[in-house]
């Protein structure tokens, strides 16, 4: 059972173990994902949107290309590197906002459901069932056809695909916590339900949420890519990585660099996010509960 | 299982299982009802089948006749009531796109293809993930552990359509081992199944690893070691047996994720299953088939979850009280 | 820890062995699979909009090679010929009555007897029924048909239709089914295996996957393909089709432009149709040229209601560059969408003026915009560009992206709308379209037909640009029978469209197919059908 004392111990271990920070994933995340997302305007060598028809399909450096276009150019002569750098922001925004939607909705419902039980719990669990039973991809197709594909529709789909996992996990944690001594003590002491939920229970499920959210970064990015593949992602010419990979997929066997480098950016980011998530879990979740 | 539970009379156990089952079925049916509303609204908000199914130069008479024939001129609630009434009898109407085909019948015809692919994908992910997870646990903290986890992670870090196309080029074109696409022999299913399965390997291997670690730490395993049972027997017989229920606990999410993956992968490999039907039907605004296919997906998901739940109950009766 | 490893090593070995074994089996099986039977031709194309054996219930995108129409197209020139069921035809002076004489020896495959006028009448009746969805069927619906004798049929039309042969050739508004089969087996007979009179016989289909036909020995036309079977495979991913071609699984595939180039570099052959098969354009939607636009589609709020903006849009585009990127070799610039040198109404004058009036001139574009007060003087300055792809036109998405980039350079604001074809159509048909969208004309319709569909209120009111003069000319054209006057009317319409910058014309494009150069020697087809492909009997194997 989790209680404050265990939590304090784990917090201490957290600081003690800071030296074991996974430097490789963090560096990769910074270089490939975070820094480009905020500073693409300063580091990108070319405009990611303007075609240069005289420089179509330039191969990358080392494969017959020049330093002008380090990672080569696409079919319209746009610099792949610049497009990846500029795309980072959209990938970051979609995954962060999408996950935030999932976290807020899922956590709130999960918290209340697990704490209040009764009919509300039943209702939330049915909603979780419904959400898990509807393939996100099909919902996305229908949604895109109904309201059109946009940044918003992609964020909605990502949030929809993720919230149920948070709700389920948080509820399960709360079920364990609500019977614990410190909650009982607070109830006896006359604390309001809101206070118990947000002051006592929420901090204790926070670890789980952080870990789960980190691990969902990969799922969000993959979902964004799949939506682009189906032609219902963030509209062109926004160079989200999913669109770049999807646009270049026809040329994997020939002009491979068009989809390879954006694919690599996705690969590095998702792997690093997952490794970071694993590390976080080890630090924050001493019992290695699985998700 | 506690002594007290074991002593509970059999009759009560059977009654409780039945009650539990009834409750689960009822809640699944409720979920399905809500899904029909969502699906119906979304598909009807998403534009008119006229525009997907009639040519650019269709005349007004052609359009009017089409709208009348398909009841598209009635109010939405009325269309929904008709739809629900028929759906209860298994009648989802006839396909607009595949002329003369019964919508649900058409979807059910394609279902074996998807289940076949999904089944193979589940099998593959389990067959790959279990040894990976076991190896990672046994060699915890060594390079073997790290590379096993890296390999597992790789599948989760590549867009599946991209992986699918790379697989086609490597194994079908350059090596010439397997057919590129389509359906027919078991060989046709291998590449798409890999493209779907790899994504799940990571999560499964991770679960297996931690379950193994827990088991390897358990008292009875320590006891077995003390008794001098050989280490490989300990691992393969005692530990793995206990860790093997991991895919079961994870089955619900696994099934959902593999069904979702099939939507994209079936398109890449021209695999004519439900995912392919779903995309074609939504693009063609074939409402009856869209509704049928999404309901079919939901039913598959719910049945698999129900089965998992029942297996749980069989294993651990305490869950019923949850 | 260490001692564990040694004891554990037995198990992985077993796993490894079984994996190797599995690998060997797979390899062996793969080799046998790759060895292809040379007598079966496989063509992989993107999936059709409809999957049905009842041709009239589809939009007419694909004519089965087992079926025939009345009029054929010459493989080399695309000109109408009598290679299909009609041996000869004639029309009266004002084009309201057309008489076709059938080949006397024409017969249906599979013992369903000779092809007679009764079969044509029967087919006409089912094609014009309520469940018909065929493109261009509207025209046939107004006709009456008479069987003059066993081998002669006459169509009588309420108004002059000089282009009547078009519907009976590659466009395929009417394909001939067997009446005898219908009487014996009913509609189910057609659904399971429609009898046709072409050089191939329908064998079967795998829904969503493929369609198979066998070659007929001693076909009544004397045509004899050099293979026994032909299979069409529906594969939506271009890279998968390319892989099929490269792996030798397909003889011929359709590919987007860049992949065609890659395939050619890899040693495959690209074959183009002998004539232009498709025209592409971007259309301004709404009745933007209507001085009194209706409230529902108040064209005056669109930036392109101003002719100076429309000219600026056209001037901003470097067509040579765009067409090179989108289509590559064999493509020609198109002065006016729906105008074609093969059909009446062609204006050499407009073709000659095209460079001067539509040529790439960003400075001029900017000057025009300045003069128009763009963007400040407009309520809706941003132009929504539709990003969409359509089966057969994968380049449409790129087209919008390129146009946007060029418009951006001269300062025209744009907004990209990613939407599927059906959504765009819903808006257009509902008169709520407020965007600039790619559009195609395939197969290229006779100019008189095309111009009415895309620019006037005659054939498709929702695509009417609202110009009173163009509508007026269109109305006159409907009843005009004198070829010279018709020519003049059409040229008048095209000139008006051209001078008013009423659209953004793009290209006249041949149909093309990529064949595996190890398997196929050649194949000529005129690009006269919706899919661009036809004349499969001419596929020349190595």
TrEMBL record, chain A:
One of its GO terms (biological process) is protein transport. The chain crosses the membrane at residues 20-44, 88-116, 136-166, 209-236, 256-280. It is a multi-pass membrane protein. It is found in: Cell membrane. GO terms for cellular component: plasma membrane. Its main location: membrane. Residues 88-277 form the ABC transmembrane type-1 domain. The keyword Glycosyltransferase does not apply. InterPro entries: BP-dependent_transpt_permease, MetI-like, MetI-like_sf. Keywords: Cell membrane, Membrane, Peptide transport, Protein transport, Transmembrane, Transmembrane helix, Transport. Gene3D superfamilies: MetI-like. Belongs to the binding-protein-dependent transport system permease family. This is Glutathione transport system permease protein GsiD. It comes from Pacificibacter marinus. The lineage of its organism: Bacteria, Pseudomonadati, Pseudomonadota, Alphaproteobacteria, Rhodobacterales. The gene is gsiD_2.
UniProtKB/TrEMBL annotation, chain B:
The chain crosses the membrane at residues 21-45, 117-139, 160-179, 185-205, 245-269, 289-315. Pfam families: BPD_transp_1 (PF00528), BPD_transp_1_N (PF19300). Keywords: Cell membrane, Membrane, Transmembrane, Transmembrane helix, Transport. GO terms for cellular component: plasma membrane. Residues 111-312 form the ABC transmembrane type-1 domain. InterPro entries: BPD_transp_1_N (IPR045621), MetI-like (IPR000515), MetI-like_sf (IPR035906). Its main location: membrane. It is found in: Cell membrane. It comes from the Bacteria. One of its GO terms (molecular function) is dipeptide transmembrane transporter activity. It is a multi-pass membrane protein. Belongs to the binding-protein-dependent transport system permease family. This is Nickel transport system permease protein NikB.
TrEMBL record, chain C:
Gene3D superfamilies: Dipeptide-binding Protein, Domain 3, Periplasmic binding protein-like II. CDD domains: PBP2_NikA_DppA_OppA_like. Residues 1-34 form the signal peptide. Keywords: Signal. Residues 84-444 form the Solute-binding protein family domain. InterPro entries: Peptide/Ni-bd, SBP_5, SBP_5_dom. GO terms for cellular component: ATP-binding cassette (ABC) transporter complex; outer membrane-bounded periplasmic space. It is found in: Periplasm. One of its GO terms (molecular function) is peptide transmembrane transporter activity. One of its GO terms (biological process) is peptide transport. Belongs to the bacterial solute-binding protein 5 family. This is Periplasmic dipeptide transport protein. It comes from Pacificibacter marinus.
């Amino acid at each position: 059972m989790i209680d404050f004392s265990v939590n304090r111990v784990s917090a201490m271990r957290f600081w003690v173990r800071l030296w074991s920070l996974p430097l490789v994933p963090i560096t990769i995340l910074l270089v490939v994902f975070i820094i480009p997302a905020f500073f693409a305007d300063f580091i990108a060598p070319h405009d990611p949107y303007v075609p240069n028809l005289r420089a179509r399909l330039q191969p990358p450096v080392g494969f017959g290309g020049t330093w002008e276009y380090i990672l080569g150019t696409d079919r319209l002569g746009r610099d792949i590197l610049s497009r990846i750098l500029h795309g980072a922001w959209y990938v970051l925004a979609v995954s962060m906002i999408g996950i935030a939607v999932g976290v807020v909705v899922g956590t709130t419902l999960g918290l209340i459901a697990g704490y209040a039980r009764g009919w509300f719990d039943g209702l939330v669990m049915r909603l979780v069932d419904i959400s898990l039973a509807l393939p996100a991809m099909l919902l996305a197709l229908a949604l895109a056809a109904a309201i059109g594909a946009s940044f918003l529709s992609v964020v909605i789909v990502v949030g929809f695909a993720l919230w149920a996992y948070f709700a389920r996990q948080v509820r399960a944690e709360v079920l364990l916590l609500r019977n614990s001594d410190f909650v009982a003590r607070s109830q006896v002491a006359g604390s309001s339900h809101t206070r118990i939920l947000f002051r006592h229970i929420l901090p204790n499920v926070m670890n789980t949420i952080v870990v789960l959210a980190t691990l969902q970064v990969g799922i969000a990015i993959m979902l964004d890519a799949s939506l682009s593949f189906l032609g219902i992602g963030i509209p062109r010419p926004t160079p989200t990585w999913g669109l770049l990979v999807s646009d270049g997929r026809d040329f994997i066997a020939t002009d491979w660099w068009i989809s390879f480098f954006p694919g690599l950016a996705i690969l590095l980011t998702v792997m690093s996010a997952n490794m970071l998530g694993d590390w976080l879990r080890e630090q924050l979740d001493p019992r290695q509960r699985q998700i | 299982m506690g002594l007290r539970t074991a002593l509970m009379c059999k009759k009560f156990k059977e009654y409780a299982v039945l009650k539990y089952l009834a409750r689960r079925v009822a809640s699944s049916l409720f979920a399905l009802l809500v899904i029909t509303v969502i699906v119906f609204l979304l598909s009807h908000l998403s534009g008119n089948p006229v525009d997907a199914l009639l040519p650019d130069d269709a005349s007004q008479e052609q359009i009017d006749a089409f709208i009348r024939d398909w009841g598209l001129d009635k109010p939405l609630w009325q269309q929904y009531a008709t739809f629900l009434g028929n759906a209860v009898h298994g009648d989802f109407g006839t396909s607009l796109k595949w002329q003369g085909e019964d919508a649900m019948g058409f979807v059910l015809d394609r279902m074996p293809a998807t289940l076949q692919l999904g089944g193979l994908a589940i099998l593959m992910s389990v067959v790959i993930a279990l040894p990976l997870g076991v190896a990672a646990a046994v060699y915890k903290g060594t390079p073997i552990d790290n590379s096993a986890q890296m390999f597992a992670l790789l599948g989760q870090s590549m867009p599946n359509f991209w992986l699918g196309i790379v697989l086609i080029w490597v194994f079908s074109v350059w090596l010439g081992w397997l057919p590129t696409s389509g359906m027919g022999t078991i060989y046709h299913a291998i590449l798409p199944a890999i493209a779907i399965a790899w994504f799940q390997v990571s999560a499964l291997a991770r679960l297996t690893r931690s379950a193994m670690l827990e088991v390897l730490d358990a008292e009875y395993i320590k006891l077995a070691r003390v008794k001098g049972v050989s280490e490989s027997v300990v691992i393969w017989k005692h530990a793995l047996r206990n860790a093997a229920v991991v895919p079961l606990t994870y089955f619900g999410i696994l099934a959902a994720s593999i069904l979702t993956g099939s939507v994209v992968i079936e398109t890449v490999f021209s695999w004519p299953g439900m995912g392919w039907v779903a995309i074609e039907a939504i693009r063609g605004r074939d409402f009856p088939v869209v509704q049928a296919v999404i309901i079919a997906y939901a039913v598959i998901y719910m049945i698999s979850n129900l089965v998992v739940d029942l297996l749980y109950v069989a294993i651990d009766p305490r869950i019923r009280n949850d | 820890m260490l001692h564990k490893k040694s004891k554990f090593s037995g198990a992985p070995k077993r796993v490894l062995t079984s994996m190797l074994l599995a690998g060997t089996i797979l390899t062996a099986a793969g080799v046998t699979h790759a060895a292809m039977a040379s007598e079966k031709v496989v063509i992989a194309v993107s999936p059709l909009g409809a999957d049905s054996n009842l041709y009239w219930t589809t939009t007419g995108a694909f004519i089965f090679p087992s079926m025939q129409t009345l009029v054929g197209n010459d493989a080399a020139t695309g000109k109408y010929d009598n290679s299909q069921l009609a041996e000869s035809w004639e029309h009266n002076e004002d084009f309201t009555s057309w008489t076709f004489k059938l080949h006397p020896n024409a017969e249906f495959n599979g013992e369903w007897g000779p092809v007679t006028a009764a079969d044509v009448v029967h087919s006409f009746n089912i094609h014009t029924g309520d469940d018909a969805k065929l493109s261009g069927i509207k025209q046939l619906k107004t006709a009456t048909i008479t069987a003059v004798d066993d081998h002669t049929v006459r169509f009588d039309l309420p108004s002059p239709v000089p282009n009547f042969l078009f519907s009976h050739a590659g466009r395929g508004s009417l394909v001939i089914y067997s009446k005898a089969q219908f009487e014996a087996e009913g509609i189910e007979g057609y659904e399971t295996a429609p009898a046709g009179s072409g050089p191939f016989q329908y064998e079967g289909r795998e829904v969503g996957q493929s369609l198979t036909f066998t070659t007929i020995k001693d076909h009544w036309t004397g045509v004899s393909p050099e293979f026994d079977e032909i299979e069409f495979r529906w594969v939506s991913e271009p890279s998968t089709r390319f892989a099929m071609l490269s792996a030798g699984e397909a003889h011929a595939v359709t590919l987007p432009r860049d992949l065609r180039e890659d395939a050619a570099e890899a040693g495959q052959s690209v074959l183009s149709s002998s004539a232009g098969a498709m025209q592409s354009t971007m259309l301004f939607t709404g009745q933007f040229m209507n001085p009194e636009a209706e409230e529902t589609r108040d064209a005056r709020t669109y930036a392109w209601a101003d002719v100076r903006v429309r000219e600026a849009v056209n001037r901003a585009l470097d067509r040579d560059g765009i067409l090179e990127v989108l289509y590559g070799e064999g493509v020609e610039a198109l002065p006016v969408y729906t105008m074609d040198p093969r059909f009446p109404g062609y204006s050499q004058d407009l073709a000659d003026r095209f460079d001067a009036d539509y040529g790439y001139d960003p400075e001029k574009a900017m000057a025009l915009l300045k003069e128009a007060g763009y963007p400040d003087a407009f309520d809706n300055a941003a132009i929504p560009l539709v990003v969409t792809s359509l089966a057969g036109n994968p380049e449409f998405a790129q087209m919008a992206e390129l146009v946007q980039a060029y418009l951006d350079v001269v300062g025209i604001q744009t907004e990209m709308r990613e939407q599927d074809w059906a959504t765009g159509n819903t808006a257009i048909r509902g008169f709520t379209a407020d965007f600039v969208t790619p559009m195609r004309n395939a197969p290229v319709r006779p100019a008189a037909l095309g111009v009415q569909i895309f620019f006037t209120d005659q054939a498709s009111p929702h695509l009417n640009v609202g110009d009173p003069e163009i509508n007026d000319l269109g109305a006159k054209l409907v009843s005009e029978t004198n070829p010279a006057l018709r020519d003049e009317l059409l040229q008048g319409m095209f000139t008006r469209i051209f001078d008013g910058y009423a659209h953004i014309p793009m290209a006249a494009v041949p149909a093309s197919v990529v064949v595996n150069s190890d398997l196929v020697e050649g194949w000529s087809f005129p690009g006269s059908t919706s899919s661009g492909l036809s004349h499969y009997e001419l596929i020349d194997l190595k």
